Amino acid sequence: MTDLEKNAYMLIRRGCARSRADLARRLDVSRPTASTAAEGLLARGLIRECGKGRSTGGTTPILLSAETGLAGCIGIDLGYADRMSAVLLDSAGNILRRKEREFDPSDLRSMAENSKKLARALSLGKKLIGVAVALSAIIDEKTGRVIASINPVLRSGLLQSTLEETLECPVFSANRSRAAAFSEAFGGAAGQEEDFALISLGRSVGAAFWCGGKLFRGSGSAAGEIRNLRVASGDRLEQALSPERTAGADREEILETCADALSQIIDIMDLKLLILSGRFADFGRDFPASLETRLRETGTQAAVRAARFGRFSAARGCAFRMGELIIPNT
Fold this sequence. Notes:
Blueprint: H1 3-13, H2 20-27, H3 31-44, E1 47-52, E2 62-66, E3 72-77, E4 83-89, E5 95-102, H4 108-123, E6 128-135, E7 137-139, E8 146-149, H5 159-167, E9 171-175, H6 176-185, E10 196-201, E11 205-211, E12 214-216, H7 237-240, H8 243-247, H9 251-269, E13 273-278, H10 287-297, E14 303-306, H11 313-326
Parallel strand pairs: 3-6, 6-9, 10-13, 13-14
Antiparallel strand pairs: 1-2, 3-4, 4-5, 7-8, 10-11, 11-12
């Protein structure tokens, strides 16, 4: 497969290009070149034609979408303190099944065995291309190696090999905040917005910045590490929003902490949209709207939305990305 075809497939699968004309614009190539790429993907069974679009005065466009019936991928979020969240995606990135299971994040073997049980429960015999795991860690995206993490087990360097041995399939690792941002950028709460911040709350707290339609990684793949940000109380943000602290905290106290910390991030990045993912879903469906109101009271003008995929956003994001990397080559 050519690089042009791979790029065309990603655009179609992400929902960024729905016709040959869209492909030509997004790839910055001629219409015949875009059509050739589309025909190659159709011949390989990676995409399909799915009806006609609305004409704007010229030829009625034939709509394109990713094929859904190829091998699936499982995504598992290991960033929570008390549970792992998992999803099964079809080859187009749609969630077919979702499931949560309690686990011990301090025991690598237990983590691997519970991941295997989740994968078996979700797959139900479906052919899988692999399993993707979202971690609260700084990850070398070229090798999948954990560079740093608040979880000592993840710093051992044995996670990847242990999971691959237990699950008996390829394993792809990703930072959970970035995975969630990727998920919400394509088919999620971001909509058409190309600049937003996603704050992911799990065992710790992390962020991902989507700028100009792309994920901002920083010089050492560490962009978005906000856990040491100080809030008005003097605590680090990781302490103030820890599961232990928020379990008994008043809702107003949580709102005040979030408004204090996140307004700093929004103002520095000059963003119009903030997306809340992970354990923020446990604070109630109206929490994003309440936080948006509180931010506006402090002079910070930004929309706040809940992640469309809730606690499963990071699991979907890492599985979606793994499918992008593997499906075109299988």
